[in-house]
Design brief:
2 helices, single chain, mainly alpha
Length: 52
């Protein structure tokens, strides 16, 4: 992953990429463990936020 970054990448850029990957991995693990919510539930919750 790091090797794919441009040559002018800063340490902060690397840290941000690593944090992003960690968050994605954690989310996928939760889904694998059945801890996610359905697409329908997301739509329901979002519609409440968007109609306020």
């Amino acid at each position: 992953m790091i090797e794919a970054l441009p040559d002018d990448t800063t340490v902060d850029d690397v840290m941000a990429e690593l944090y992003f990957k960690q968050q994605i991995d954690a989310g996928l693990k939760e889904l694998d463990e059945g801890k996610g919510i359905s697409h329908e539930e997301v739509e329901k919750r979002m519609s409440r936020w968007l109609t306020r």
